[in-house]
């Protein structure tokens, strides 16, 4: 069950998180560009921060907020920094994996050449003179 038909819990969570890091004055246009009303976003935000989005539970109206909006924004900015750091780490590690795979390929080729060079040559077949040809 989702809080809003047509959107998965993951999509709703991402929209709410992206909304929280938008600069002041840019939030409404950002919502309009995505075709999401503020009322819908508020319901989603309550489900993400106060309720149980995965089960489609939204807290009752009038309940006290446990996370003030200013702290939500700070949490989302921290999350964005962590995500950027994670993406940088993934990029760095992917490059390192490629480097190690290339090194591994080169070593495999070198080992193959060493094996080819160290194989004993076939012994020469002694040539005997045919007594009938003399």
Brief synopsis:
The chain has helices spanning 9-20, 27-34, 38-49, 69-118.
User: Given the helix and strand composition, which structural class is it?
Assistant: mainly alpha
Task: Report the span from N to C terminus.
Answer: 101 Å
Contiguous runs where pLDDT drops below 50 for at least 5 residues: none
Name the average pLDDT: 80
Question: How are the elements arranged and paired?
Answer:
Layout: H1 9-20, H2 27-34, H3 38-49, H4 69-118
Could you walk me through the main structural features you see in this protein, from its secondary elements to its overall organization?
It is a single chain. This protein is 61% helix and 0% strand. By secondary structure, it is mostly helical. The radius of gyration is 33 Å and the shape is rod-shaped. The N and C termini lie far apart (101 Å).
Features of the shown structure:
4 helices; about 130 residues; mainly alpha; about 0% strand
């Amino acid at each position: 069950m989702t809080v809003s038909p047509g959107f998965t819990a993951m999509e709703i969570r991402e929209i709410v998180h992206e909304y929280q890091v938008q600069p002041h004055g840019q939030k409404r246009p950002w919502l309009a560009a995505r075709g999401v009303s503020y009322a819908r976003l508020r319901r989603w935000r309550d489900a993400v921060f106060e309720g149980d989005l995965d089960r489609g539970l939204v807290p009752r109206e009038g309940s006290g907020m446990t996370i003030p909006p200013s702290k939500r924004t700070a949490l989302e900015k921290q999350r964005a920094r962590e995500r950027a750091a994670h993406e940088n780490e993934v990029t760095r590690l992917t490059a390192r994996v490629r480097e190690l795979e290339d090194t591994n390929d080169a070593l495999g080729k070198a080992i193959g050449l060493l094996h080819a060079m160290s194989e004993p040559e076939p012994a020469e077949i002694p040539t005997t003179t045919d007594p009938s040809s003399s």
